[in-house]
Amino acid sequence: VEIELLYDGVAWLGFAVSGDGGMVGSEAVIGVPDGSTPKKYYLGGKDTSSVLPMENEKQTLTDASIEVVDDQTIMKFTKLIKELDK
After folding, report:
1. What are phi and psi of 56, to 5 degrees?
2. Fewer CB within 10 Å: C terminus or N terminus of the chain?
C-alpha cells in the first residue's frame, strides 16, 4: 500500500494501524525531517523509551522519504499489506 502524509508545518510524522484498537504492541512508521529515512517502530508502551526501531530484517518499507517543501512536511512510503513474518 502506498501512503502519503502531509502536515502544514515542520514536524515529525507517524502512521500506525492497530488490529485491536490499542497502541501498545502495534507497529508504526515514524519519520523525522532531519535527513534520515522513515522507519518501522515497535510500540512497546506509551512512553518514548518504549518506542523502538524494528530490526533491520523487518525494515520492509520501500520508497520511504520525508521532506519539508514550502513549510509543509511530506512523508511517503510503500508498505507491505502482509508482512513476511505474519
Report:
1. -55, -40
2. C
